[in-house]
Write a structure and sequence with these properties.
3 helices
């Protein structure tokens, strides 16, 4: 079971980094045709799109990446406590 928790931890960390990369890259207004932008969008959009429907924008700020990272970390910690 220990290896399962480690795998979940790595997946959560990788997903968090990918979401943060998408946020940082969005500050520079990249071209939508850029291969890195396409990759980040393809990986993160299934997570961020449902959150955007629930969480309203605060002026020009999209808080869905912040909420997604918090939820990912929360899920990991809950799984860590539930699985011995």
């Amino acid at each position: 079971m220990d290896i399962f928790i480690k795998i979940i931890r790595v997946l959560c960390d990788v997903l968090t980094i990918i979401i943060l990369l998408r946020v940082v890259i969005s500050w520079y207004l990249p071209r939508p045709t850029n291969i890195l932008v396409k990759f980040l969008h393809r990986i993160t959009e299934p997570i961020l799109a449902p959150l955007r429907r629930i969480i309203p924008r605060v002026g020009p700020l999209d808080l869905s990446p912040l909420v997604a990272v918090i939820l990912i970390q929360l899920i990991y910690h809950l799984l860590q406590r539930l699985l011995p």
